[in-house]
Amino acid sequence: MDTIHEKIIYKNAAGNSIEITYSFPFFLQEFTGADGLDSEIHRIKSPNQDGFSVTGESLQGRSLQILGIIKANDKVESAKYRAKLIQVFNPKMEGTLIYEYGDIKRQIRCKVEKAPIFQKKDTSFKRQLFNIDLYCPNPFFTDAEESKEEIAIWQPAFEFALEIAEEGIEMGYREPSLIVNIFNQGAVKSGMTIKFRALATLTNPSLFNVNTREYFKINKTMEAGEIITVTTHFQNKRVNLIKNNITSNAFNWIDLDSTFLKLDPGDNLFRYDAETGLDNLEVDIYHSPQYLGV
């Protein structure tokens, strides 16, 4: 029977990384905490009420534990691999854990709660047990790579070998639909990054959620080459203008009735628009579904 491929890659904020899997020198023995989550039920009780009224719920942070074995040829190698684990799993740095299980590849941000603890070696120094505890304030796993949806783009319409007729040739064409469906396969509502790009002059670009009737709008005339990025993640809301490779804050151009749009689980219909120069607008949306576990 085939064994399911399982691998952990941990990268800290300094760019150091390590891979723990079923091979030399870091052998994965057990990985726990990637599934179940504790939920806190928020409730109130009125006078003479039987039971409670539930007002909401929230998920707790996630604790992860890695149990592994250092496999080395001698005492010198064992010491080198111990030092590598200590360097990468630095409690003073945040990190990202990437977990692969079969065809699934997901990641989660975390902190080292307990740096590598090494248990007794065997007499040959060829096997060294270790365990590491991690804590994830945000309990959701996400895809290892963001999904990109191109809403408003120009498509190329020619290829080589190229023959140009007397009446000319169409170099490209505009996608005809102003509405796109973005499917969020995650378990909860999630933020996204919206990128408005001006190919030529346009005014007041916007994105409208057909389902919720909410929108996000920028009250600005955009010139060719300008890009405005809107990030709507929880506790990470940003609006930036990129012009001539210089990034600046663009919060002052937000329409007052705008909403930082989110993606509900399932289908989400969006329509892009601009008050003038609509054909000069390109819109991309980047998002990472959030999962309850792996």
Throw out a few tags for this protein.
Siphovirus-type_tail_C, Siphovirus-type_tail_N, single chain, nine-stranded antiparallel sheet, 1 helix, mainly beta, Elongation Factor Tu (Ef-tu), domain 3, Jelly Rolls, 2 domains, Phage tail protein
> What number of structural domains do the residues give?
2
Q: From the 3D structure, determine the CATH topology of the largest domain.
A: Jelly Rolls
Secondary-structure element pattern, one letter each: EEEEEEHEEEEEEEEEEEEEEEEEEE
| Termini gap | 22 Å
Low-confidence stretches: none
Q: How would you describe the shape?
A: globular
The quaternary organization reads as: single chain
Mean pLDDT across all residues, rounded? 88
**Major sheet summary line:** 9 strands, antiparallel
Q: Give the fraction of residues assigned to helices.
A: under 10%
CATH class membership of the largest domain:
Mainly Beta
Domain Siphovirus-type tail component C-terminal: 186-289
Domain Siphovirus-type tail component RIFT-related: 15-132
InterPro entries: Siphovirus-type_tail_C (IPR054738), Siphovirus-type_tail_N (IPR008841)
Organism: Tissierella creatinophila DSM 6911
